[in-house]
Specification:
mainly alpha, 2 domains, 3 helices, about 0% strand, elongated
Length: about 100
């Protein structure tokens, strides 16, 4: 099973649970409905909290981006190398 299939299955299960959790309170007594709605709200809050935590950890652990001027220098260096290669190829063609 591919990772995407596992994630898709998890999404389907969570989606079904949320759908049942949102619709079920219409068919049960008020005390049970309130409890179910509290569980749904708690689970959404938990999911949001975990996502925010995960994003924060990823931001803390990822390296800082390179400055733009450094990237520009690297690109200019690569362009110059490509120009030299093309000049060399053109020079070889004219010598043949």
């Amino acid at each position: 099973m591919h990772k995407k299939d596992l994630v898709g299955s998890l999404f389907i299960i969570v989606g079904l649970l949320v759908t049942v959790g949102v619709l079920l309170p219409f068919f049960v007594p008020d005390e049970v409905a309130l409890f179910i709605l509290k569980l749904v709200a708690l689970s959404f809050g938990g999911v949001v909290g975990v996502l925010l935590f995960w994003i924060g950890v990823q931001l803390l652990l990822s390296p800082p981006p390179k400055p733009l001027n450094e990237i520009e220098r690297e690109i200019e260096k690569e362009v110059e190398e490509i120009k030299k290669e093309v000049r060399g190829m053109l020079k070889d063609r004219t010598e043949d």
